[in-house]
Amino acid sequence: MAKRGPKKKRVDPPKQGVEPLRSQNIMVGGHRTSMRLEPSMWDALEDIGRREGLSVNKLCTAIKDRIEEQARRRGVAPEEADVTLTSAVRVFIASYYRRACTEDGHVRAGHGGSDPFLGTPFELTGDDDDAEPSAASSGTADGDFRASGAKILMGGMPFAEV
């Protein structure tokens, strides 16, 4: 019988441009599963997890929980929801970073100390009338950010005023 052990990681020089999808095993809700993402998406997921104090496994579990809760709220059985975890992770990453292009943006977005789902498609809004309004429903998300005269940075230099 062949000896089994951890696979040795190949160390390739950094590539420019888009790299092919990379499969990685993760634990979601205590179950092992595999996801295929671009290396830059894996990096972004790890960065978000580090900023929010969550492992990639816990972050992916939270995303899956949000998908299932949203399906339940729409009256759809979670197993019948037509959203894949991989797709949801990509949307979450894009939404997370759209809310904060700079460190000031991260502070305004509440990253690193609150619910990382605020202002993303995974935000769970309260059904109660007396619940506090979310950033998205109170107009403090994208709309006010653009109206604030914030500058978009490109390569560390101001690129455009929005």
Mind explaining what this structure looks like?
This protein has helices at 39-52, 56-73, 85-98, 103-109, 135-138, 142-147; strands spanning 22-28, 31-37, 151-154, 157-161. It is an alpha+beta fold. The chain has a two-stranded antiparallel sheet. Helix 1 (39-52) packs across helix 3 (85-98). The chain is globular. It starts with 21 loop residues before the first strand and ends with a strand. The model is unreliable at 128-162 (pLDDT under 50).
Number of strands: 4
**Helix/strand order, N-terminal first:** EEHHHHHHEE
Q: Order of strands side by side in the largest beta sheet? A: 1-2
Spans of 5+ residues with little confidence (pLDDT < 50)?
A: 128-162
Count of helical regions: 6
Share of helix, binned? 25-40%
- Radius of gyration, in Å, reads 18 Å
Tell me the β content.
Answer: 5-15%
The biggest sheet, with number of strands, parallel, antiparallel or mixed sense and barrel status, is:
2 strands, antiparallel
